[in-house]
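Translate sequence into structure tokens.
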Amino acid sequence: MKVTIQQTEKLLKGNQSFSQLGFSLMLTRLRTLYTKDSSESTLQSCMDEINVFLEKFPAIMGADYAIIANT
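Result follows.
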């Protein structure tokens, strides 16, 4: 699964709760970065980092894919 730029923005602006701790921690850090600098380049780098995480750990993200898909 890959997130789009629109899904990334919704994830960064939203308040979703995820069961995978590593993903939640990364998202909290990215939200802080995006709050400080909401430029297109920051959004793009956040999307890239989320996609790398999702590609690297697909087995542990199973339950959270539904949350991400609905954003």
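Note: The chain has one domain: 5-69.
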